[in-house]
Amino acid sequence: MFASRPALRWVVPAGVLAATFAIGLGGSLLNADAAGSLPPRTAGQLLVDVQEAAVDGFSGTVVQRADLGIPALPSIQGGGPMGGGDTELQSLVSGSHTLRVWYGGPTKTRIALLGTLGESDIINNGRDVWTWSSRENAATHIRLPASPDKAKDKQDLPTDLPKTPQEAAERTLAALDPTTKVTTSGTGRVAGRDVYELILTPRDTSSLVGQIRLALDGENKIPLRVQVFPKSSGEPAFEVAFTQVSFVQPGEEQFTFKPPAGVKVTEETAPSDTGKREHATPEKPEKQGPPDGMRVIGKGWTSVLVAKTGSTPSASGGDGPEDALGGYLTSLPRASGSWGSGYLLKGKLFTALLTDDGRLVAGLVTPERLYAVAAQK
Q1: Which residues cross the membrane (predicted)?
Q2: How large is the average pLDDT for residues 169-196?
Q3: What sign has the CA pseudo-torsion 47, 48, 49, 55?
Q4: Nearest to 112 by CA among 104, 127, 103, 123
Q5: Contact 304/373 with Cβ under 8 angstroms?
Q6: pLDDT score for 272
């Protein structure tokens, strides 16, 4: 369904839209310990530190908590090798989760989502990408193209939410512009290590995001915790943080996946854009920006995404994944105005509007801002 209606993939994990604009994560799950003994650094110095941070490898345990303030999402079972339940990576949009992560370089990564009934893994080792679900007893293998350029095109994960503090911070820092106030609150401790704390605050008060906090490792300067707080309260909406971390290079065995006996393995082919690259020239560069059918209105924290979904939600009463999604969407509150009518999904950090004429309008803003944008047909 998401392949045929790309815009709808933003609706289910609606908070993902917020993440793509600016944010990382938030929460009070791991409050900093007593202040550490690091020498003082300014906010500007810390910004440079985190952007230049580089480590050869690390591993650790990450705890993530999401409280986006949206209705409970439907449990969509049988969704492929990532399965369902608390070991499904798509479940990261709500509740608390524990992950194990290993990093051995840009082409050697592994993420394991641990659950009460098993685990789900994504392993990238050079050109090989594996996904594995112990709960579904199934795995998928993808061989990436040999071209260095194409090798950078990683297989999409089942969710767009950041899996580690580093990934969350990179998304946040990429969105920094004059609309953001950057300060520091001093030092503290996270996962038993001294950290600097960097604070990002939107200057535009009409955004639903109140503050983003990054805890940077005092030695390596990579984020050990990233938090996002909504403007509406002092309670966090999303957080990802290390509870234990080691900066020792992980062994090769962590990135070598051998399917256990009895596991069903599906071989897939990585998407190819050979034709596009062959026809791309300096005079006619490849198109940049949002995909076809999508546009961004405004800038910074109050940007709004407008996308054509190609259809309107409906509930058929069936029990398939599309039926579950349709039932979820049609259970949302109705909204109407000069722009038309549709379904409204409002969270602590974002708002999304799915109109009856097949448009998705969403951003880190209030419903009123979305209505104004929706009226600009």
Answers
A1: none
A2: 83
A3: positive
A4: 123
A5: yes
A6: 61
**Nearest residue to 358 via CA among 17, 76, 6:** 6
Say how many C-beta atoms besides its own lie within 10 A of residue 299's C-beta: 11
User: Above 80 in pLDDT, residue 99?
Assistant: yes
User: What are the CB-based long-range contacts (under 8 Å, 24+) for 369-372?
Assistant: 369/206, 369/302, 369/304, 370/304, 371/335, 371/337, 371/339
Q: Amino acid letter at 345?
A: L
Domain boundaries, the chain: 22-269
Measured from the Cβ of residue 244, the count of other Cβ atoms closer than 10 Å reads 13
Please check whether residue 16 is in contact with residue 225, taking contact to mean a CB–CB distance below 8 angstroms.
no
pLDDT digits (tens, 9 = 90+) for 282-322: 444 454 555 667 899 998 889 999 998 876 666 555 565 56
Instruction: Name residues whose C-beta falls within 8 Å of residue 25's C-beta, 6 or more positions apart in sequence.
Output: 64, 162, 165, 168, 226, 227, 228, 238, 239, 240
Pairwise CA distance, residues 375 & 377, whole Å: 6
122: nearest Cα among 149, 93, 99: 99
pLDDT score at 54: 86
What is the Rg, in whole angstroms, of the alpha carbon atoms belonging to the chain?
Answer: 21
Region of residue 149 (left: phi > 0; alpha: psi -120 to 50; beta: else): alpha
261 pLDDT exceeds 80? yes
Query: How is domain 22-269 classified at the CATH fold level?
Result: outer membrane lipoprotein receptor (LolB), chain A (2.50.20)
CA distance 169 to 162: 9
